[in-house]
Amino acid sequence: MNHMNALKSCLRAATLSLALGLSLFGSTAFAGNVLDRVVAVVNDEIILDTEVLTATELEARQALAGVERDSSEGQRRYDELRRRVLDSQIEKLLVAQYAREQKIYVTEDEMRSAIKDVVKNNNLTDESQLREALKGQGLAWDSYSSMLRQQLLQLKVVNTAVRSRVTVGDDEVRSYYAQTVRQVAGDQLQVRIQQLVIPVAKDAPQALVAEKRSKAAKVVEGARGGQDFLSLCLKFCEDGAKGDGDTGLVPRSDLPTELREVVATMDPNDVRGPVRSERGFHIVRLVEKKDGEVRPFEEVKETLRRQLYEQQVEKAVTAWLKELRRKAHVDVRQ
Question: Are residue 286 and residue 312 in the same domain, yes or no?
Answer without folding.
Answer: no
